[in-house]
Amino acid sequence: MIPPKHIVWFAGNREIDLDDSAERAWWIKQVLMRGRMEDVLSLDFNEIERLLPEFHLPPPVRKLWSDYFAAKGNSKPAPEKSS
Fold this sequence. Notes:
Strand content: under 5%
Number of helices: 4
Number of domains: 1
Order of helices and strands: HHHH
Largest sheet: none
Distance between the termini: 29 Å
Mean pLDDT: 87
Structural class: mainly alpha
Radius of gyration: 13 Å
Number of strands: 0
Shape: globular
Helix content: 40-55%
């Protein structure tokens, strides 16, 4: 897929292979940080929850998603993984 410019304006017309796990994780992170509601709703929330500890996100974005999953009772708030 070629990502929309409002999410990854810096990627040019580079195609993203969503079957590649690393590229898919990168795409999900970009959507969480820059996507619109319809972009976020297109993601698999179970995958977001699984990947959240791996992502280095701005604190407000991390808190939003950690609180969301904690409120749903699916997990404890996700700490950011140290590098």
